[in-house]
Amino acid sequence: MNLEKELAKKIISEEEEIDNRTFGERVADKVADFGGSWTFIISFLIFIVIWIGVNVFIYVNKEFDPYPFILLNLILSCVASLQAPIIMMSQNRQEDKDRERAKKDFEINLKSEMEICEINRKLDMLIKHYKLEEKK
């Protein structure tokens, strides 16, 4: 049982260590967090509605991006092409963290199994010893 507690303390202390990500990794995580949020979806939807509204209703004959909104499509494509690899970088880093966490869980489970086997061995010895004393 002590080994399991020691490993659990080790894992907690490693997770609380100072963030050693690079600047680019921190930016990628922030972009991925924001890009996958309802805040981003709603704000981008509002941006698109305003863009179309301004072009259709305010600049009636002098639109800066007339229908079919080619400039808007270009902006959306650029955002998607930049956002996708950044989110993938963040996901890859998270996958590495998950792999390390799974490895540590395996170590804890292995140590726990060893402790349980040791306890079972001691119980078997006690049972044998108890049976021997009963026969005497």
Description:
By secondary structure, this protein is mainly α. The protein has one domain (2-135). The chain is 84% helix and 0% strand. It has four helices and no strands. α1 runs antiparallel to α4 (70-135) and α2 (23-35) crosses α4 (70-135). The longest helix is centred in the last third of the chain and has 66 residues, at 70-135. The two termini are 35 Å apart. 1% of the residues are buried.
Query: Can you give the helix content as a percent range?
Result: over 70%
Main β-sheet description: none
Instruction: Provide the domain count.
Output: 1
Which structural class best describes the helix and strand composition? mainly alpha
Topology diagram in text:
Elements (H helix, E strand, L loop, with lengths): L1 H14 L7 H13 L2 H21 L11 H66 L1
Helix pairs in contact: 1-4, 2-4
Keyword list:
136 residues, 0% strand
Please provide a brief summary of the model.
The protein has helices spanning 2-15, 23-35, 38-58, 70-135. The chain is mainly α.
